[in-house]
Design goal:
63% helix, 206 residues, mainly alpha
Length: 206
């Protein structure tokens, strides 16, 4: 009986493998029209792994998956550089995605040009709003506490030393302490000797 089952599996493998290998890579719009199923998850995986989606398209495709399998997670992480949670997978398409650690590598002029371009397209970016500003620390105060922690934590140490070495105000701290990410912010401040002015926030908030 076991031998017969193995033969059937082998025949099925031989028959279906060429079909799967030669099947088309569907577009995002086509994936959206497919019913939720394991089959669609397979095509989503191919779309991420073999297609050329933008980061926003990749997020949208990943959010469609019925089961976030290991292969799907591996494919989306390879495409984005991180594993998105449910909220990031449902991100506003008008939100231009650029990570603080990536933005920090670019010059100020390049960031300002990029920010102007995305605004002209009707998009927005809190990361660029802060990091393209002539005074990033002051601009940091204009975004939500969650975004403040995100940018502070994700930007590189060199950038943090250069632009964020300033004490937080009392009002700013009152909002930041309620954020889960603020624990990481504290760790980065404490373990970075050059952030002397920022450390003053804890005993002399301005």
């Amino acid at each position: 009986m076991r031998f017969k089952v193995n033969i059937k599996v082998w025949i099925a493998f031989i028959f279906f493998t060429p079909i799967l290998l030669n099947s088309a890579i569907y577009s995002l719009s086509e994936l959206k029209q497919m019913p939720e199923s394991i089959s669609r998850d397979y095509y989503i995986w191919r779309f991420l792994n073999e297609g050329k989606p933008s980061k926003e398209e990749a997020l949208q495709a990943y959010s469609l998956a019925k089961l976030k399998s290991y292969k799907l997670k591996k494919a989306i992480k390879k495409r984005l550089g991180f594993l998105p949670d449910k909220k990031s997978a449902e991100r506003d398409p008008k939100n231009f995605i650029i990570y603080p650690e990536v933005a920090g590598k670019k010059g100020r002029r390049a960031l300002r040009r990029l920010y102007k371009r995305i605004l002209a397209r009707g998009q927005y970016s809190d990361v660029l709003k802060v990091m393209a500003d002539t005074k990033p620390f002051e601009a940091l105060k204009t975004v939500s506490p969650k975004t403040q922690c995100y940018i502070f934590n994700r930007c590189r140490t060199k950038y943090r030393k250069k632009y964020f070495n300033h004490p937080f105000s009392k009002e700013q701290l009152a909002l930041l302490v309620n954020e889960k990410q603020f624990n990481t912010t504290i760790f980065k401040i404490v373990t970075t000797p050059a952030l002397k002015k920022t450390k003053k926030s804890y005993w002399k908030p301005q």
